[in-house]
Design a protein that fits this description.
Elements (H helix, E strand, L loop, with lengths): L9 H5 L27 E7 L2 E8 L2 E7 L14 H6 L7 E3 H5 L14 E3 L2 H19 L4 E2 L14 H11 L6 E2 L7 H9 L11 H7 L2 E5 L3 H4 L10 H11 L3 E5 L5 H5 L3 E3 L6 H14 L5 H7 E2 L1 H8 L10 H8 L3 H13 L2 E5 L11 H13 L8 E3 L12 E2 L12 E4 L2 E5 L7 H12 L1 E2 L3 H6 L4 E4 L2 E4 L5 E5 L3 H4 L3 H8 L4 E6 L4 H4 L3 E4 L8 E4 L7 E5 L12 H12 L1 H8 L5 H17 L12 H7 L3 E2 L1 E2 L1 H4 L5 H5 L13 E2 L3 H6 L26 E4 L27 E5 H7 L6 E6 L2 E10 L6 E4 L40 E6 L17
Parallel strand pairs: 6-20, 7-17, 8-9, 8-12, 9-10, 11-27, 12-13, 20-21, 21-22, 28-32, 29-31
Antiparallel strand pairs: 1-2, 2-3, 4-5, 4-22, 14-26, 15-16, 18-19, 23-24, 24-25, 28-33, 29-32, 30-31, 30-33
Helix pairs in contact: 4-22, 5-22, 6-16, 11-14, 11-15, 11-16, 22-23
Bound molecules: ligand MGD (2 copies) and molybdenum atom.
The site of one ligand MGD has 33 residues, from strand 21.
Organism: Campylobacter estrildidarum
InterPro entries: Asp_de-COase-like_dom_sf, BisC, CT_DMSOR/BSOR/TMAOR, Molybdopterin_N, MoPterin_dinucl-bd_dom, Mopterin_OxRdtase, Mopterin_OxRdtase_prok_CS, Prok_Mopterin_Oxidored
GO biological process, one term: anaerobic respiration
Length: about 850
């Protein structure tokens, strides 16, 4: 059973609380006027992606950081480094790059990332941003202003930097945005064609069902013990607790992954090692075997799917003369024929839940693996049952943890578009009005492009690309405003990306730390961390388990300001009207936080007397310094994905063209793409072990780092626990290392035609031969020749789309060479401040 925590009967315990001043209880007080002051000595509750935290404060400094509740035996080290998140690597003042300050019209963009910064006053910086933004808008139009600003920012529904930026760019006249994301670029586009929903961000069959009904759990290309350390809002931590229960159960676990992951080790799983990017072939071999063995649920295929016959013809070689049988599959994926057959039969003979991660769809032709997985699962016929089928989000944000009955808080919105005439603000466009603003809104959709095409777009304005059945023409971007993300680290092929980032006239970044992206800016605004401001968040993403106060713990560091304040202040330069539109007539952060809380409160009041978790007033909640915990309902504990469709496929059709699961898509056929056909297809990736050569014999996998959130926390002393000779660790098989004369702890150079990085060798049998793993998110640290001294994986990856359908990134597809580094060892400088004047 779920760890049922004691109910938080806040109302009942409130009277014993001495710390609430009586005025707090009064009605109709503006929240921003209710200040309890900062705690100088004591404890404060806040939250981060890595969970609800309890911070201990001594003499106004955070000295300790722990999880607010201990749910599992596993430690989550990300929770302990809050002091470093406040005090290390901070951007303390506003800065402007020297040439930009001297002449913003000829700012020498080729010097970005190399040149000194000049410290300026906050007011000067604000005025400069407003002036240059206006200039770009007037001379180049709205399509020259990029506000896509992808990134994981910090938790919090109010201080949501990306939305705050977009709200600001909207009110000042609009911007160019992006579609999709880096996480599930391929799957979120293909899945709607296949099952009518995106799947990747959806609640999964309840863990309670799995523990009761599954005989096998297959973890296919996922490392939930690592990736469940965080969540988009804030983790409720229950996903890890369920994996602990899985370990205690009799359920057998199989991990299919080139790496023996932490999860595989923890669960004592059977480890199957396909060559990277060949899972589609492996699944096709299994499918052929099931057909040969007559272990196919034809009734399921008949009732719930369309197009199996055409796919079967492809398997049998009727399209291309190649039989995709077990032998064929084995030659491609490197797994012996017997194992492929065994796996297929185990899946068919037992209630089997296949949990797939997303790494394998962040690969060339990344649309195929999950499409093929669904096809295989249709043949097994277990979709919609309590212990079988597939799930694409058990490894992420605690999918499968039952949804709680409670209130859901509101959040800041991107707002409405400002209408301007002859440089004057005329008010806000309402989305449903057919005025000029709404027109732009429609046009702006035309200018947004798939997020992972950013470098391509910057380098090739006006280029037209195919995307998901339509054509997109890149805008001519000349002004970038980035907040809450680290694109110089997160985007593929860093050397090309750096060239792209030297194209626009202006780049403004709000950052907390001197990240590689901050160092590439023209104007850098020092931003508070979430520990220096008030906010509020839910946890769990799917479970909606808690409402957590995120209380300011310390004073802002140096001259750092909240994103909300920075944007409000730029709006002021535009005029009072714009400021009022942005801030809803001067609302402070705390007023908005109270509004968001109250929208949840209102929902729970409608549940009536019987509701188990009554919410107190905002003022009581805030003063109490404790999260609210909601409880799951009986229905959600027993919830099964796809069950309605399975019970009645005619009444509860899927959102696909046919209403059924589409193994063959007539719509995709009409697109007539050479790189994404009408049914799951095996395509050779651009780089894989099948075309490895002497120069670059290894397939590089760039998994998500267990001890960071991407690049976040890289600058903390947690880094000291995993680096090798100060560098990002690279996992290499012992036999491969021996051949190359590389020993555990050696400094190595990893390279290909796109770039080179230094890394520290971790020699191990936890990775298959021919594959190396360098996790994404290491801070890019180029020397004068472009060698990354720290080991940022994207220096080596390919900046190419998955296909014309989804245009996702392919960060798990690339070949590299690796050798012992024998030259003079350069010092890592990624975590040092840039040169300033
Ligand atoms: N090779 C390779 N590359 C990958 C991936 C991969 O698997 N392999 N994965 C991709 C995926 S799935 C993702 S999601 C991306 C992640 O890429 P990002 O989301 O860009 O990575 P983060 O390191 O989380 O960057 C967040 C930044 O926001 C800053 N920040 C935090 N809070 C605030 C705030 O309140 N205000 C402001 N102004 N800034 C703030 C942080 O300091 C940090 O620099 O990486 C992608 N890149
Ligand atoms: N601690 C921590 N947790 C995180 C994140 C983080 O940065 N740190 N990032 C979060 C985000 S934004 C996202 S999008 C998710 C990402 O979640 P995922 O996309 O699932 O994570 P990855 O690490 O990219 O890949 C998962 C596994 O796939 C394996 N793999 C790679 N290529 C292949 C292949 O071709 N075939 C097979 N079978 N396996 C393959 C890798 O070895 C790895 O073990 O994680 C989230 N959780
Ligand atoms: Mo992601």
């Amino acid at each position: 059973m779920l760890d049922r925590r004691k109910f938080l009967k806040i109302g009942a315990t409130l009277s014993t609380l001495p710390l609430i001043p009586s005025f707090v209880m009064g009605k109709n007080i503006e929240a921003s006027k209710v200040s309890l002051g900062l705690v100088k000595n004591g404890e404060v509750i806040t939250a981060a992606h890595w969970g609800i935290l309890k911070l201990t404060i001594k003499d106004g400094k955070v000295v300790k950081s722990e999880p607010w509740e201990k749910i599992t035996k596993m430690d989550n080290p990300l929770q302990h480094y809050t002091p470093d998140m406040i005090y290390k690597c901070r951007v303390k003042y506003p800065y402007v790059r020297k040439s930009y300050l001297e002449n913003p019209d000829h700012p020498k963009p080729e010097l970005r990332g190399k040149e000194e910064f000049v410290r300026v006053s906050y007011d000067e910086a604000i005025k400069l941003i407003a002036k240059e933004l206006k200039k770009t808008r007037n001379t180049k139009g709205t399509s020259a202003i990029f506000g896509g600003s992808y990134g994981w920012k910090s938790s919090g529904n109010m201080q949501n930097s990306r939305i705050l930026l977009q709200r600001f760019l909207n009110v000042t006249g609009g911007f160019v945005g992006v579609t999709g994301d880096y996480s599930t670029g391929a799957s979120q586009i293909i899945m709607p064609y296949v099952v009518g929903s995106i799947e990747v961000y959806e609640q999964q069959t309840s863990w309670e069902n799995i523990l009761k009904h599954s005989k096998y759990v297959v973890i296919w290309g996922a490392d939930p013990l690592s990736t469940l350390r965080i969540a988009w809002t804030s983790t409720d931590q229950r996903g890890l607790a369920y994996f602990e229960k899985l370990k205690e159960s009799k359920i057998k676990v199989i991990c299919i992954d080139p790496v023996k992951t932490e999860t595989a080790k923890f669960l004592n799983a059977k480890w199957i090692t396909p060559r990277p990017n060949t899972d589609v072939a492996l699944m096709m071999g299994m499918a052929s075997h099931l057909i040969a063995k007559k272990k196919v649920n034809y009734e399921f295929l008949q009732n719930y799917t369309t197009g199996f016959d055409k796919f079967k013809a492809y398997l049998e070689g009727q399209e291309d003369g190649i039989k995709k049988d077990v032998k064929w599959a084995s030659q491609i994926c490197g797994i012996d024929e017997k194992t492929i057959k065994n796996l297929a039969e185990i899946f068919y003979d037992n209630p089997t839940m296949i949990m797939s991660g997303w790494g394998m769809q962040r690969a060339h032709h990344g649309e195929q693996p999950h499409w093929m997985l669904v096809t295989l699962c249709c043949m097994l016929g277990q979709i919609g049952t309590k212990g079988g089928g597939f799930g694409l989000s058990y490894h992420y944000s605690n999918g499968g943890v039952p949804t709680c009955k409670g209130g859901i808080i509101g959040g800041i919105s991107a707002g409405e578009l400002g209408i301007w005439k002859n440089g004057k603000f005329k008010g806000l466009a309402k989305a449903n009005q057919t005025n000029k603003g709404a027109e732009w809104l429609q046009n702006s959709a035309k200018y947004s492009f798939p997020v992972a095409r950013i470098a391509d777009a910057l380098l090739n304005p006006g280029k037209t690309i195919d995307h998901n059945g339509s054509k997109i023409t890149y805008p001519d971007i000349d002004f970038i405003y980035w907040v809450g993300g680290n694109p110089l680290v997160h985007h593929q092929d860093t050397n090309t990306n750096v060239k792209a980032w030297r194209k626009p006239r202006t780049i403004v970044v709000n950052e907390i730390y001197w990240t590689p992206t901050a160092k590439m800016a023209d104007i850098i605004m020092p931003t508070t961390s979430s520990y220096e401001r008030d906010d509020i968040t839910m946890t769990g993403d799917y479970s909606n388990m808690h409402i957590a106060p995120m209380k300011q713990a310390v004073e802002p560091i140096a001259e750092s300001k909240d994103d909300y304040v920075i944007f409000s202040d730029i709006c002021k330069v535009y005029g009072k009207d714009v400021f009022n539109a942005y801030t809803q007539n001067g609302k402070k952060a705390k007023d908005l936080i109270k509004e968001y809380y109250n929208s949840a409160l209102k929902q729970t009041k409608n549940f009536g007397e019987a509701f188990a978790t009554p919410m107190p007033s905002f003022e009581e909640f805030w003063a109490k310094n404790e999260p609210i915990t909601f409880e799951p309902s009986i229905e959600s504990l027993e919830w099964t994905r796809f069950t309605d469709f399975i019970e009645d496929p005619i009444l509860n059709t899927l959102g696909t063209d046919s209403g059924l699961i589409e193994i063959y898509s007539e719509t995709i056929k009409k697109y007539n793409y050479d790189d994404c056909k009408a049914h799951p297809t095996w395509f050779e990736p651009i780089e894989w072990l099948g075309n490895a050569n002497k120069e670059t014999p290894f397939h590089l996998i760039t998994s998500h780092p267990r001890n960071r959130l991407h690049s976040q926390l890289c600058h903390t002393s947690l880094r000291d626990t995993y680096t090798v000779k100060d560098r990002e660790p690279i996992l290499i098989n012992s036999k491969d290392a021996k051949k190359l004369g590389i020993k555990n702890g050696d400094l190595v150079r990893v390279f290909n035609k796109r770039g080179e990085v230094l890394a520290g060798a971790v020699v191990s049998n936890d990775i298959m031969q021919g594959v190396v793993r360098l996790c994404e998110g290491g801070w890019y640290d180029p020397d004068e020749n472009g060698l990354c001294k720290y080991g940022s994986a994207n220096v080596l990856t390919i900046d190419m789309p998955t296909s014309k359908l989804a245009n996702g990134n392919i960060s798990h597809t690339s070949l590299v060479g690796i050798e012992k580094f024998t030259q003079n060892i350069p010092k890592v400088t990624a975590f040092k401040d840039p040169k300033t004047l």
